[in-house]
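RECORD TYPE: inverse folding
INPUT: structure tokens
STRUCTURE:
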């Protein structure tokens, strides 16, 4: 298995996610090649890198490793040639991603892993047009990628189990927390949780229960702080006291049947 330190790593797409990936990689001393045809891609990625450097310097007094080198490539072939890992970060369109991935694997080294930063497309669909689908997996990060450690790893029907293990080791070397899904599902894990909160928040604003600012404050000054330390299950286990989750479920389990939420309904989105 290659090490990312052997580099370079190719990033296809230099938007918010692609730029975030590039920043995390570069600040870990890894050489990065980016391909993005947008005329402002270079400026955007460099601004992202500057933001990441300021953030890292404010979080630690420890010396940072020497930065990797950043190159902008005029073609996908130039970016992926000799790269040990390729991260696809193009817009959320299945046909576009399939076309990009076909071009990537055509020019990539035979042992290079290919990750997609898609936030919801299934890996089985992404790999369906590939000649070597076994090396494709979803590698879904969270913005800002250069700060947040979670990366969801999801293989498709044809993904090799060894590829998932190799990718997990690579991301751990970047200080990330790779989370391997047991099976593929639309939206993966964290985005499904966020969608539920977002949907309920929209209803509470729509029904004039709270303002947008109130909803943000309700989360960031309360449960948001807890979620930074504990997940939902650990929070409720602790809430059960000495008897733990069993006591909590006996006391509050029936409330799951109460009509508290509108999670299955969608409010009309208007300009107001």
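DESIGNED SEQUENCE:
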């Amino acid at each position: 298995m290659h090490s990312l330190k052997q580099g370079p790593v190719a990033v296809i797409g230099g938007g918010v996610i692609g730029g975030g990936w590039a920043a995390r990689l570069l600040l870990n001393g890894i050489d990065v090649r980016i391909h993005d045809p947008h005329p402002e891609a270079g400026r955007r990625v460099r601004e992202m890198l500057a933001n990441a450097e300021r953030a890292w310097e404010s979080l630690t007094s420890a010396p940072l490793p020497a930065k990797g080198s950043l190159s902008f490539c005029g073609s996908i072939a130039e970016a992926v040639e000799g790269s040990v890992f390729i991260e696809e970060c193009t817009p959320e369109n299945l046909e576009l991603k399939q076309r990009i991935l076909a071009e990537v694997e055509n020019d990539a080294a035979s042992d290079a892993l290919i990750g997609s930063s898609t936030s919801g497309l299934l890996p089985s669909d992404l790999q369906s047009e590939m000649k070597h689908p076994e090396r494709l997996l979803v590698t879904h990060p969270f913005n800002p990628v250069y700060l947040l450690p979670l990366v969801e790893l999801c293989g498709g029907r044809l993904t090799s189990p060894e590829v998932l293990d190799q990718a997990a080791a690579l991301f751990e070397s970047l200080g990330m927390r790779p989370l391997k899904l047991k099976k593929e599902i639309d939206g993966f894990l964290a985005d499904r949780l966020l969608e539920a909160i977002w949907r309920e928040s929209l209803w509470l604003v729509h029904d004039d229960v709270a303002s947008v600012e109130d909803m943000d404050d309700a989360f960031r000054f309360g449960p948001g702080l807890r979620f930074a330390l504990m997940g939902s299950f650990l929070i409720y286990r602790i809430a059960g006291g000495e008897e733990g989750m069993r006591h909590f479920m006996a006391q509050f389990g029936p409330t799951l049947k109460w009509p508290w939420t509108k999670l299955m309904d969608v409010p009309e989105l208007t300009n107001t």
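NOTES: The radius of gyration is 21 Å.
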